[in-house]
Design a protein that fits this description.
This protein is an alpha/beta fold and 226 residues long. The chain has 2 domains: 148 residues, Rossmann fold, CATH 3.40.50.300; 74 residues, no CATH class. Helices cover 46% and strands 13% of the residues. The strands form 2 sheets. The protein has a 6-stranded parallel β-sheet with strand order 2-5-1-6-7-8, sandwiched between helices. The chain has a two-stranded antiparallel ribbon with strand order 3-4. α2 packs across α5. The longest helix is centred in the middle third of the chain and has 28 residues.
Length: 226
């Protein structure tokens, strides 16, 4: 089974691209959806979140805006939150991969916003990044409710820069050229990856960090660099 990681900075169109892979018949693990489930009323993460950040859970419901305000721009607070969420999300991801392997699925996609920030690419056979020019990214993000330029800048400051992500990725999917172009890229990537043999699942020992890419070997849209 070949495990393809999908990532992209805020506002790049990663979630829409993941939907394209679903329409192409690729099973998708959505890390964001897993986090939302863990933080929903009755979610497994709520007691630990309330203990670490008193007042953000009210009547059994997480105030996401209040939690975001507590962790954005505070590295120590963010690490506390990640220490609660990441092990639970990882458990769900492993269950997803184990189930797909039992069904002999040739290709799966793991949609992880912080793939490079958490060394998640070491647990993938290849990584794809969704990217768009900064003006498009900024316009998309600032059109969201409860978002302003200052919050956008703080979030960007906690993410690996887009240029570095594109260097580290095996594939780049441009989302600023229209849905048809992005879908064409996704289709070519899925076709190529289905023809490959995966090596990261089942896991063997601790994940190893992937070697850095040579600066002259830039990612090619929807084509392998190996």
């Amino acid at each position: 089974m070949f495990v393809l990681g999908l990532t992209g900075s805020i506002g790049m169109g990663k979630s829409e691209t993941a939907k394209m892979f679903r329409r192409l018949g690729v099973p998708v693990y959505d890390a964001d959806a897993a986090v939302h489930a863990l933080q929903a009323p009755g979610g497994a993460a709520l007691p630990a979140i309330e203990a670490a950040f008193p007042g953000v859970v009210r009547d059994g419901v997480l105030d996401r805006t209040a939690l975001r305000d507590r962790v954005v721009g505070d590295p120590a607070a963010l690490r506390r939150l990640e220490g609660i969420i990441h092990p639970l999300v990882g458990r769900r991801q492993r269950a997803f991969l184990a189930g797909a392997a039992r069904r002999r699925t040739p290709l799966v996609l793991v949609d992880v916003p912080l793939l490079f920030e958490t060394n998640g690419e070491a647990r993938c056979d290849a990584a794809a990044v969704v990217s768009a020019p900064y003006p498009i990214q900024r316009a998309r993000v600032l059109a969201r409710p409860n978002m302003d330029a200052r919050t956008f800048a703080r979030i960007l400051g906690q993410q690996v820069p887009d240029g570095i992500k594109r260097q580290r990725a095996d594939f780049v999917i441009p989302s600023g050229l229209g849905r048809r172009h992005a879908l064409s890229c996704a289709r070519r990537i899925a076709k190529l990856c289905r023809q490959r043999i995966g090596h990261v699942w089942p896991p063997r020992g601790r994940p190893r960090r992937r070697p850095p890419r040579h600066p002259s070997r830039r990612p090619v849209h929807a084509r392998s660099r190996s």
